[in-house]
Design brief:
260 residues; OB fold (Dihydrolipoamide Acetyltransferase, E2P); seven-stranded mixed beta sheet; flat
Amino acid sequence: MDRPHRMGKPVRHAGPYLLKSLLPVALAATLAACDNQSNEKADSKPPAAATEQVAETAKAVKAPEAEAPTEAERQAALRKLGETMREPKRDLRVIGGGRLPVPPIPEEGLVRLSPTESAEEKNARQKARIPEKPDLFARPIVVQAGELRSGDTLIRLAGIDLLPKEKRCKTERGNWPCGNFARAALQRFIRSRTISCSETAGTAAVGEHYSGHCRIGKTDLSQWLVSQGWATASGSDLKDAEREAQKAEKGIWRKQIPSF
């Protein structure tokens, strides 16, 4: 674009004319560079004959294959390994020519000493150290205060006197069925829980009649009956509990007829 000169004369730009003159030169230089690159690639490509010769040489030269050992060689190697493993690591000291020496025997002969305890005593001592497992009775039914039934087994509580269910206790105002009250109280306490019993010596086998101390958890049923006033003690172990229940007028020791 022409623009006015500061002195008043028009000025023309030289850019378009210069571009037209340099474009043919740049195009010729680019074509020459492309021809040089194609010639270099053609020169670097090996001829087909040389390629085939290299492939034949590679086929002819192969790595030597290892031959498998024969059976005799394998057996010999195993025998050698076994002999190496059997070799002693150190020298062993042989005592007595390889035989155990016999202890000297006195002239008067050997004397057999009596054992400190017999076999029966030792077995009894070992058995006493092992606690016996209690017998378990499921869903016991109270027959009367001090007697229960579980299945076919009739269980007699040790340490107390039986209180028959027909027993009637006397008061100033009349009699009342204390036997039935005692039976119902024990059944309410047991409910349907399983009891664990320890059989006393000299009783019949389980399945007929059973006599022992029975518990629910840590509560002894004989102790519970006496302490609640629903049984009397047959021995000296529960006499203190019986006196406490009588003093407190519990159970059969009450002075008044209980309300039904």
